[in-house]
Amino acid sequence: MMERRTFADREDVLGAVMLAPALAYVIVLVGVPFVLAIVLSFSNATAGSLSFGWAGLGNYAAILGDPIFLRALRNSAVVTVGTQLLVVILATAAAQVFRATFRGKRFARFVLLLPWAVPVSLAAIAWTWIFDSTFSVINWTLKASGLLHGWLYWLGDPGLALTAIIIVQAWRIFPFATVIVLAGLASIPQEIVEAAVVDGAGFWRRLFQVELPLLLPVVAVAVLFGVVYTATDLGVVYILTGGGPANTTHVLPTLAFQRGILGADLGQGAAIAVFLLPFLIVVAVAMLRLARRAEVGGAAR
């Protein structure tokens, strides 16, 4: 006698049903706005008006000839690359520390994850006070220790403002990267590390010649997530500098918000936002290929 099949036994239908909410979420909250942004980028639509005219490549031609957009594009690259370099260094160092056994390790891990858990807006407001031109705790500390004889206007100088943005973005992202690197360190076979110790390899030699090459796929994934978070972030730059002084610290998301929402030019704002897409695609493909080659190389060894 054949057993009656239940809904739970139909794996094909059950899988589709369980995936449906996630798929609907992606379509409604990601896919539809993305398609709408592409359509708007080829139009002359403005906020407060129901008119919709076809502009072709006019918006893209306008922003490519705009020095403020070119500056924002360069700032996006500088902030993204600078942040990821700092994140990789901090995450690797923190992961090495948390590998060891010490008193208060669980509390230290909890404190490490706080920057990732704190809302971006609250964190950026706190950092605004830290970098304040008058009350900056960094300036007062450096001055009290005799390392600073003048005064640093962190958010008033374009170079210092970009440095401040990189610091805040790295502070916000590196806990997540640390968790990924720590998981990668835990997955390294202990026999390989023990063999390196037997061969007389010290800490730095084990780190650079054994552990980091094996961690390359994991680090590539952490960098990929970090690039996406940094390149698409609006809150940190908008709260810290608002794109100032004189539009010198704009990144693509803040400039798109300024032109599209505050400036009511939806077409040009959408074109600036869509311009992030090829940049992120190139980075994603490069990181995934790097991770794949590292995995193949590690397997070959």
Produce the secondary structure layout.
Elements: H1 11-41, H2 58-64, H3 67-99, H4 105-117, H5 120-130, H6 137-144, H7 158-187, H8 190-198, H9 203-231, H10 235-240, H11 252-262, H12 266-274, H13 276-300
Helix pairs in contact: 1-12, 2-12, 3-7, 3-9, 4-7, 7-9, 9-13, 11-12
Would you write up a description of this structure?
The mean pLDDT is 83. 28% of the residues are buried. The longest helix is centred in the N-terminal third of the chain and has 33 residues, at 67-99. The radius of gyration is 24 Å and the shape is globular. Helix content is 74%, strand content 0%. It is an all-alpha fold and 301 residues long. It contains 13 helices and no strands.
Which short descriptors sum up this protein?
MetI-like fold, 301 residues, 13 helices, globular, mainly alpha
